[in-house]
Specification:
This protein is mainly β. The protein has 2 helices and 8 strands.
Length: about 170
Amino acid sequence: MAASPYLISVLDIMHKPGAMREYKLDIITNSEFGEGIAKVVEGVELDLDIRVESVHEGILATGEVFVDADAECSRCLEPLTLPIEVDFQELFAYSLTNEDDYVVEDEEIDLEQVIRDAVVLSLPFHPVCRKNCLGLCPECGVKLAENPHHVHEAAVDTRWSALESFIKKEE
């Protein structure tokens, strides 16, 4: 099995507080990030700027992720490409003291879950193509941006439908 592209060797800086390395990585995603109306699809390139520093407790990973997410406008349903730029910082401990801690394993740190969490949490919940997007007509689905003066005949309240018979008799 091929090694994960998210693994970074820290052998040369382990247990040397103050030692640091910087990396620029381009990783092709091997699965989707996110499951909502906005997501990073499989096969998209993640651009990573990463700095790993040795501290007394472990390895501190700090970085930025740049990626394009696919989405659709939550108002008009037009497809969108959203540039995502997110920072992350995580400590990879030398020994496991808490179940939720990340740990240095085999002189490597695995950034996959850290990056995935940072990207997914930065995806917009209700993306819009522009702030003043008018959306769709709730009755017929016409895009209101293409026809902003779109109107429908007012619906008759069913409680008054008995009175319609009087209007029809007078005509």
